[in-house]
Design brief:
Blueprint lengths: L1 H27 L14 E4 L5 H12 L3 E3 L7 E18 L8 E17 L9 E10 L5 H29 L18
Parallel strand pairs: 1-2, 1-3
Antiparallel strand pairs: 3-4, 4-5
């Protein structure tokens, strides 16, 4: 019985040591959970806030303690979504076994957003920013329903990536009166 207890306590001690070593190694690699973004404003107006991108941005703002207002006059800054688009292009064609038909084998998906920030006075904090994403996916007519679902998920993932990039950019903006570019109407997407 003593041997079993000694063996059991040795396993517990070894397990604890390995757990502590793992936690130290894990913390040393720089991993940390995504937390709040440090934003320099308390209220924001988001143009086109009813789009999927606008709803995702609104949710992220609220999670970071920023109030999304419906009147541009009451906002500390306004985020203008100038352009948002989705495109799909055929990437490759191929024939089925024994046929010479040009069936689509792969598609290339594009998701593009252009936006800019303005302060209360209407002056831009930044030039127009562009975020472009691209994903490839294979396609088969026999799996059309599943591939439509996969395509939708890929667009959702690209939009989520775009929101994360926009939040990082918003965290970097610190308004200063001396270096704000004046481009209220000069910079529009092409």
């Amino acid at each position: 019985m003593r041997l079993a207890n000694a063996s059991n306590s040795m396993y517990q001690w070894t397990f604890r040591c390995l757990l502590i070593a793992f936690l130290f190694a894990f913390s040393a690699c720089g991993f940390h959970l995504r937390g709040y973004t440090d934003l320099s404003f308390k209220t924001i107006y988001i143009s086109n806030s009813q789009s999927e991108l606008g709803r995702d941005l609104t949710r992220n703002m609220k999670n970071n303690g920023v109030k999304v207002v419906s009147d541009v006059e009451t906002a500390d800054i306004s985020l203008e979504i100038l352009h948002e688009s989705r495109q799909k292009r055929i990437l490759s064609l191929g024939g089925s076994a024994g046929t010479n038909t040009g069936a689509v084998r792969e598609y290339e998906l594009f998701y593009s957003v252009a936006y800019r920030l303005k302060d209360k006075s209407g002056k831009s904090w930044s030039r127009t920013q562009h975020i472009d994403s691209r994903r490839d996916f294979s396609y088969a007519d026999a799996e059309a329903l599943g591939k439509a679902y996969e395509e939708s998920n890929l667009y959702d993932n690209m939009r989520s990536d775009t929101v994360r990039q926009m939040m990082r950019a918003l965290a970097a903006y610190r308004p200063s009166v001396s270096n704000q570019p004046d481009e209220t109407n000069a910079d529009t997407p092409q």
